[in-house]
Amino acid sequence: MEPVKENYDVIIVGGGPSGSACAIFLGRQGHDVLLVDKAKFPRDKACGDGITGKSKSILEELNLVEAVEANPHGIFNGALVFIIGQKLDVDFEGFYGHVSRRMVFDNIIFQEAKKLVDTLEGFTVTGVSFENKKAVGIKGIDSNTKEERVFRAKIVVGADGANSVVAREVGLSHFKPDHHASALRIYYKNIKDLSKKLEIYFLENQELGVIPGYFWIFPLENNMANVGVGMSTNSIQKYKINLQDLLFKEIKTNPLFVDRFKDAEVEEGSLRGWNLPIVTARRKMYGDGFVLLGDAASLIDPFTGEGIGPGLVSAKVASGFISDGLKKGDYSGRLLKKYQDEMWRLYVRSYLKYHFLSKIVGNFRWLVKRAFRKFANDDDFKQLVTMTFSDTEKRRKFTVWTAMKLLFKAIF
């Protein structure tokens, strides 16, 4: 539905998974919503394309799992993790996830939102409007008419990604290299021995030991794969690493990859990079008249780099408090703070525990090497890997003390 008016209950900036999912939840509750995006769908977005347990549970609520499975996608039912010469092979019993290109996946959710709310594609937001320091709308350029347009709303939702205009306009776009990562993705076809498992490689070199990031191969449809590398921005700057050079050097010289990529074909134009604002930055997600979702709220998982799942969860949680505020006529930061509090309870605290583990991987490599050798066939350790990608509830209950017990076992 194209917008024919200038006033709405809610304006959502960004039609990716978090923005479109939020629009669906609010639209189903009868709220008057405008969803805008600078692109026209379908459109590509750089990503690892993995849809894990936390994403799948929200997709089930949105009744979109069948739509994902009816469109081109890959399946994963386990993980292969390589680190310091050790391989961990895990089957996800009772769970499988999808790998869906964002060109396909995002369009599925956006088209569903389009059935319920007004949408405007090709609209570049240039600013947020304020009255008495409260967000009351947006302004931007409509590429369809080349004219500036202004829309008003009781609540503005920023779901416009890592480089969020909304976050910038409300003064919450701070950049912290030690709480930020960068990644590069490319699509290949005909990689040898491609399986239905997420392949994750912690790379090594003589100077750095374990490189502070990881290389991945995720299976897509028709013998295609999403191949990429990601690393903390702080490490990239510290070690002067060029991700593109690293990606292709590994493919061409690493004994694990040379034969597998020998006859592989690159999908032309598929090499793309992106930024990952990590949840450890603890960005404020709300204010008077606005909330931030997904990457705009700096919700990237610090251990896996996943963004889709946290974005979808934030959409569901935020929509509940937004709806409550609309019913009460309360659009204040005091009410919308409940959204951030709930996100902290559900995910942020557990993410910080996994951030603790990532620091161990980077700073105590001898211990990690010993642990992987010892736990290669340990059922408890495999369960930890499984719940990282599948079981959100168990992951939330994972504690630092549990991690310490595993490390104790590794040492002794």
Can you give a write-up of this model?
This protein has 13 helices and 21 strands. It has helices at residues 17-28, 53-61, 65-70, 102-114, 165-169, 233-239, 243-253, 308-328, 333-363, 365-375, 379-389, 392-397, 400-411, and strands spanning 7-13, 33-37, 50-51, 74-76, 78-83, 86-91, 97-99, 118-121, 123-131, 134-142, 147-158, 180-189, 198-202, 204-205, 209-210, 213-219, 224-232, 265-266, 272-277, 286-287, 290-292. Strands 1, 2, 8, 9, 10, 11, 20 and 21 form an eight-stranded mixed beta sheet that branches. Strands 5, 6, 12, 13, 16, 17, 18 and 19 form an eight-stranded mixed beta sheet that branches. Strands 3-7-4 form a three-stranded antiparallel beta sheet. Strand 10 and strand 11 form a beta hairpin. It is globular, with a radius of gyration of 21 Å. The model has no long low-confidence stretch (mean pLDDT 88).
Structure characteristics:
single chain, 412 residues, alpha+beta, 8-stranded mixed beta sheet, 13 helices
What general outline do the C-alpha atoms trace?
Answer: globular
- Give a short account of the largest sheet: 8 strands, mixed
Class from secondary-structure proportions: alpha+beta
Oligomer classification: single chain
Strand content: 25-35%
Poorly predicted tracts of residues: none
Radius of gyration: 21 Å
Q: State the end-to-end CA separation.
A: 63 Å
Mean pLDDT: 88
Helical coverage, percent range: 25-40%
Total count of helical runs of at least 4 residues? 13
Number of strands: 21
Question: What is the element layout, followed by pairings?
Answer:
Layout: E1 7-13, H1 17-28, E2 33-37, E3 50-51, H2 53-61, H3 65-70, E4 74-76, E5 78-83, E6 86-91, E7 97-99, H4 102-114, E8 118-121, E9 123-131, E10 134-142, E11 147-158, H5 165-169, E12 180-189, E13 198-202, E14 204-205, E15 209-210, E16 213-219, E17 224-232, H6 233-239, H7 243-253, E18 265-266, E19 272-277, E20 286-287, E21 290-292, H8 308-328, H9 333-363, H10 365-375, H11 379-389, H12 392-397, H13 400-411
Parallel strand pairs: 1-2, 1-11, 2-8, 5-13, 11-21
Antiparallel strand pairs: 3-7, 4-7, 5-6, 9-10, 10-11, 12-17, 12-18, 12-19, 13-16, 14-15, 16-17, 20-21
Helix pairs in contact: 1-4, 1-8, 2-8, 8-9, 10-13
